Amino acid sequence: MPSTIAQQFMDALQEIEKTRTVDAIVQLFSDDATLARLSHVGDYQGSDGADRFWREYLGTFKSLETTFHSVIEDGEQVTLEWESRGELLNGDPLHYCGVSLFSVADDKVTSFRTYYDSASFLPKGSRQS
Asked: How far apart are CA 127 and CA 67, in angstroms?
């Protein structure tokens, strides 16, 4: 069974995908958290950075639903393997998989990194099969 923070994160992500509001997930991050993803150069910092990170992420999709396949925890480190399906803003269907890693201290996420195939986000006609 996942730890409280891992379960809270998974629940919050699925909630923001449905509600399109990021508050549920932003509150899990510490005031000095760093967040990073492949499609953006540099880190997002603190609560404001977490808010911007998740708003930008959601802003890519018309709809999205994530399923978690694996949770690995080692002390204050969490690794989540997931799969997401949905629709891009232009109406193209989307299916991609990835891994997210985060560090936890005092029941808050202090460092978050996510890795996925960003080619999935290209317009349908420009993707290679």
From this structure: 23
CA dist 2 and 84 (Å) reads 20
**Residue 17: which of 51, 83, 65, 80 has the closest Cα?**
65
**Residue in this structure with the two tokens 């996420």, named with its chain if needed:** 109
Three-state secondary structure of the chain = CCCHHHHHHHHHHHHHHHHCCCHHHHCCEEEEEEEEECCCCCCEEHHHHHHHHHHHHHCCEEEEEEEEEEEEEECCEEEEEEEEEEEECCCCEEEEEEEEEEEEECCEEEEEEEEECHHHHCCHHHCCC
pLDDT one-digit tens code per residue, 64-99 = 999 999 999 998 999 999 999 999 999 999 999 999
pTM exceeds 0.70: yes
